[in-house]
Design brief:
- The complex is a heterodimer of chains A (52) and B (181).
- Chain A is mainly alpha-helical and 52 residues long.
- In chain A, 73% of the residues lie in helices and 0% in strands.
- The two termini of chain A are 26 Å apart.
- With 181 residues, chain B is an all-alpha fold.
- Chain B has one domain: Bromodomain-like (Up-down Bundle).
- Chain B contains six helices and two strands; from the N terminus they run H-H-H-E-E-H-H-H.
- In chain B, a hairpin with a 2-residue loop joins strand 1 and strand 2.
- Chain B starts with a helix and ends with a helix.
- The chains are: A mainly alpha (52), B mainly alpha (181).
- At the A-B interface, helix 1 and helix 2 of A face helix 2, helix 3 and helix 5 of B.
């Protein structure tokens, strides 16, 4: 799980938007969201190392 | 004008949240956990949608991106709240006004959903001719670049903390940085 990935793709999306590339910025946003959802799934489904 | 001001205020709100998170990280040494980083990522996704509205004019697609970002962010923070709901659990990190930061994140994402609803109501009452695409003014451009800087800072900080891998569940140091020193 590469934790820097959502920020790297998110930064790309902001820069594309600032450069006037709307469609590319939106696709980069979609990629950011896919990574965030994948990382959330990993966190929500793996066993926790905590005792309750 | 009012529609653009709403988007500027929304983007400023996201920047404020990211600055506050950095303040706690740098001034108080509270390193973000993996779920905390995911919540920051959702704030970044929310901010991108505000940038799209400012840069290209408001669009239903951009509002959809805002709602998805806020809902995924709320789900992520709710996941962290539920991790610490058992009696006797003191929660993760410091608290502010009695709530931990992930609880505040849930409040912020919920308010963002409400804010987008209000934006849509206001926009529906604005004449279509006044919703034309304008070039962002100086204040809007500055805010967009401040947001870009904060996203880049999060990228750098996460890299120093985790390198190109997963972060520890309970981070206490900048692992990648320490491994190079």
């Amino acid at each position: 799980m590469v934790m820097v990935l959502p920020f790297a793709v998110g930064l790309l999306s902001v820069l594309l938007a600032a450069a006037g590339q709307r469609a590319a910025a939106i696709w980069a946003w979609v990629a950011t969201m896919v990574v965030l959802l994948a990382w959330l799934k990993v966190h929500a489904t793996t066993a926790l190392s905590i005792s309750l | 004008m009012l529609v653009r001001l709403q988007n500027l205020l929304g983007l400023l709100g996201v920047c404020l949240v990211l600055v506050a998170a950095f303040y706690l990280q740098l001034a108080q040494g509270e390193l973000p956990c993996p779920l905390c980083l995911l919540q920051r990522g959702c704030f970044v996704a929310l901010g991108i949608a505000f940038v799209l509205n400012l840069q290209f004019g408001s669009s239903p697609v951009h509002y959809g991106l805002m709602l998805v970002s806020a809902m995924v962010g709320a789900a992520t923070s709710l996941r962290q709240i539920l991790l610490h709901i058992a009696p006797g659990d003191r929660g993760y990190g410091s608290s502010f006004l009695g709530l931990h930061l992930y609880s505040w994140a849930f409040v912020a994402f919920s308010l963002a959903i409400l804010y987008v609803a209000l934006m849509l109501i206001v926009e529906a009452r604005v004449d279509a001719a006044r919703r034309r695409i304008d070039i962002p003014n100086l204040a809007e451009r500055l805010c967009i670049w401040l947001f870009a800087l904060l996203v880049a800072a999060n990228l750098a900080s996460t890299f120093l903390e985790c390198g190109l891998g997963a972060c520890p569940d309970n981070p206490t140091a900048y692992d990648w940085l320490n491994s190079r020193l």
